[in-house]
Amino acid sequence: MWRQLKNVYHWVVAWSAHVLYGLPGSKLKLIGVTGTDGKTTTSSLIYHVLKSSGKKVSMITTISAVIGGKAQDTGFHVTTPDPHQIPKYLAQAVAHGDEYMVFEITSHALDQHRAAPLRFDVSGITNITHEHLDYHGTMDRYIRAKAKLISLSKVTFINADQLEIKNKLINYRDMYCPNSIVRTYSLTEKSDRKLDISKRFDTSLEAYNKYNFLLAYSICAQLGITDAQFAHALKSFRFPAGRMETIFSGEYQVIVDFAHTPHAISEALSAIRTKRPTSRLIHVFGSAGKRDVSKRPLMGDASAGYADVVILTEEDHRDEDPRAIANMIATGLNRHGFTEVAPEHMIQFPLKKTFTFVPNREDAVRLAVAIARAGDVLVATGKAHESTLCRGTTEYPYSEKESFLKLLR
pLDDT digit string (tens) for 24-56? Predict the structure, then answer.
């Protein structure tokens, strides 16, 4: 009941803010992207393709808002800005003469009606996997929150290879917004757009990015972008910061990635293992405090499936005990035969199927570099592009990339 009242408040605030700015969303072609993982890559690719095709376009992603070609910081740990910021960015885009706006939209923003005044010309859902159950309570409620994007859109593309999720999304559409059009995309199942995007455009992609690129392609095609324009844009596309970003490649390799869900960790480490099947994989990660605790053992499971050595550490622990968070993750590691050792023993005996806990993230990065050997792959997940670490109620400056590079120099 309290959440419903709070969401009514969010709805009123959102509409008031958009009216105050003159309903700028009605003057743009809006593209929305939601999903558990892959939103930033998909949104950034759509933005790049439109821009490369001569369109005037802005975007709002987890990394930043890019309005009129200029990046603006949206705040700490933010994907969809608050209701006051959204129409402000839209108004800036209109003033710049933009025609399109690409949005990343979270399940929280959809549930809280932060996007209520907007109507999207086309939208897409990347995937829906275990995440944010601290807020939504159950997977069904989480799926319903994501499905609200369908009711705000003329056309929505959904992933047909997630068969159970697809059926639930279509059921939602049939019950609540039967006039909204749902179209499907896939690599394997029957769908409206079934194709291997890497073969169509002769580009090398990991399995998860094939889905991200296929969704971006489907949305761009819906907007009238031709295959020739899409192919031309792919030649100059660069992945967003912190998305499987190799920051050092020498005697060993160092990669940072934003993966912070069981599914994303599994996909990222699987891609590395496929490319480097005989390399020792050292994984540095943690889990955010005051967030979904049920995913923590599953993150341990995901890491254990591919990593040889794991260093558990802090990740925006807020007012939770980092050791307690690590113990929950370790539950997943333990059931795969991993053994905990002290950090100093990790240096002396960097054996496979071992893990340790280092409370300070910079110290964890230092340990990873200290135990690295020729041919190893070091991957740190969860922080990527972010520039701070939250401890208690304070945001401390922190860059994962710079922490590694400082040591490697």
Answer: 999 999 999 999 999 999 999 999 999 999 999
Residue where a domain stops, chosen among 175, 199, 234:
234
* Beta-strand runs (E) in 161-320: 181-186, 193-194, 245-249, 253-257, 281-285, 309-312
Q: Please identify which residue in the block is written with the tokens 């009941």.
A: 1
**What's the rounded Cα separation, in Å, for the pair 103 and 34?**
8
Tens of pLDDT, residue by residue over 95-104, are: 999 999 999 9
Distances (CA, A) of 141 to 25, 101, 121, 249: 27, 28, 25, 43
Q: How far apart are CA 13 and CA 275, in angstroms?
A: 48
Mark whether 225 and 249 lie in a shared domain: no
Q: Do strands 388-391 and 394-397 pair parallel, antiparallel, or not at all (unpaired)?
A: antiparallel
**Cβ–Cβ < 8 Å for 338, 293:** no
CB 212 within 8 A of CB 197: no
What is the total residue count of the chain?
409
Same domain assignment for residues 194 and 340: no
Closest to 29 (Cα-Cα) out of 111, 136, 114, 103: 103
